[in-house]
Amino acid sequence: MKDKINHLKTIFNSYSEILFLENYIAGAVLFLATFINPNIGVAGIVALLSAYMFARFINMEKTFLSTGFYTYNPLLVGMSIGYLFKITPLTIFFTITAGIITLVFSIMLYSIFSYYLRLPILSLPFVVISSTIYLAVSNYSNLFVDSLYPHMNFSFLENYLPVWVSGYFKSLGTILFLPDVLIGAVFSAVIFAVSRILFMLSLLGYYAGTISAGFLTGSFYQAFLDISHFNFILIAMVLGGIFLIPSIRSYIIAVIAVISSTIVLSAVKTFWAFYGIPAFTLPFNFISLTFLYVLGLVGFPLIAKVIRKTPEETLDYYITSINRFKGYSISIHLPFSGKWTVWQGFDGKWTHKGSWRYAYDFVITDENGKTYRNDGLQLTDYYAYRKPVLSPVRGRVVKVVSDLPDNPIGQVDRENNWGNLVIIYDIRGFYVEISHLAHKSISVKEGDWVEVGSFIGLCGNSGYSPQPHIHIQVQPSPEIGSYTLPFSFVSYTSGNRFFSNNLPSEGEVVEPVFPDKSLELKMTFILDYQFVYDVKIGGKQIDQLKLVVKMAPDGTFYFDSGRGQLYFGKHEGTFYFYRIDGNDPYLKLFFMALPRMPLFYRKGMYWEDHIPIKIVSEGLTRAGILFLSSFNHNLASVKYTGIWAEEGVIEGKILSTLPKLESTTYVQLDETVGIKKVQVDDIMIELNRFIHTKEG
Questions:
Q1: How far is CA 440 from CA 401, 414, 469, in A?
Q2: Where in the sequence is the domain holding 109, given as residue range(s)?
């Protein structure tokens, strides 16, 4: 029974993917709507099922098929055949063949586009295969004799609406080969129900493009009658809210792209008409892919790296991520132990400029902020001089310079700027240079393997260095003084605050911390571990929650409750809850109470985090907040502060002005593994039993 339901969801998801939605309920509505013209409905489902069954036959993973991503292009091809021919045994055979060809072409094109161009395939397979089919059928006389049919006109509402309204609905319906006002109205209602951002973009795209076409042709009436303007709707939706983070900038880009596409659409229609082929979605694909490629090439910051089921969810994920993970993807540890002070950071006021802007300098200061004792005239007066320098990464030593003298105070070596140094190749694909080490103090040699925290030498004053300090930078090559890359530091404290991944400010005193092995073991969850919790309010049990540890295809672990999935992981000394799929309210409480936890205990140490809007709000409230947040990403923020109250106990607070929220949280870790107790306000989730194996 469960497999049958999953198959149905896959089929319906293929329909919803046409409108860039991953929502099987919306897909079910679209599926039923296509049967207003039975030829289109039947041909579409035949092509989809033939593609799906062939994919299963060649052992394609169920997980990759479940979203409908690979099968919506065969669906479109099937509907394009149903739009041209009525259902007969001959057209069924033709449709099955076309569905399989489209699937194979989609898989091939996706592999090429994703690897070489880093672009989506959109509906390009549909355009290529449908155009090929329309050209080929001119040779199939049996199809023309037996299968052509007149199209019925369902647009009885068209006479009751102004052309600028009916034109929008008909264009929207044309996306599924149903240029009908009523069908378009249904589709717009589906879009609005799932995503207000996409609904707004559909209006914005249609009217920006159609009005532009009206200006160019001189007839607004004729422009609103042109059903091929559905291309404008698709362009606006893709660029405004799917592959770009919804924002004012993405909306402007969408409008510019739509206006540009009016010329492309006119040219395609003129050229394709010579062969008797409709424009299909070629203008949409050409403009969207061109803009996305150029935006990727110039490093446009609002390209969506993670695309969720709706633009609202993508926006929520993006806003939360930039607040939760402030550091860069390249992250390293601090190259010392104990407390050091940031002397110079990125774009520093002295030497961190231009190609060498991404670098950090560290010194040791006393309670008065001075870096030396006495008069500071001797190297030995400086607190940092000859202090241990540790490896900030694990990797292979590729370059060592150790024979340069330490400069006396007041002198610098302008010929050997970097002084004595060690360059380490990190296995993640970059190099780290640590410079200005003391003369003959380096303990590693080229070719040595080092782990995080390995001793590599002593802090010195060699090279262009006015006082003893540690200089560290990340670079793309092993050459000394190569241009630098942005990076950040993981797992450190400043005062009594813990930072998982961040960039300390100049003058800030920082200290690295390292994971506690016992905490790491407690937060290590093995596949098929099961946790059964009692849910209580006011001490009275109201429900029970069972969590099973599972692993996603990408290797991410999650707790599965049956109603939702809570994804988690450990990274560089911190345990995280990453995201929730589904709508389990109890999983949301886990996330609220412990979005992250340092795997290091110090009584009174605190840390901050941010919680997604979807975790703490529902329905129209959440929809309204996220829609407005697309115009101002700083509009809404849910801030979490956690503190180690005592060993194994974390107390927290959640504060937010939009949505308005103030909650207290409590977490108690189990003595052996996992979480024993979670409490958010008056709701408590307490461990009843822990099952080691699947069998129990």
A1: 9, 20, 16
A2: 1-152
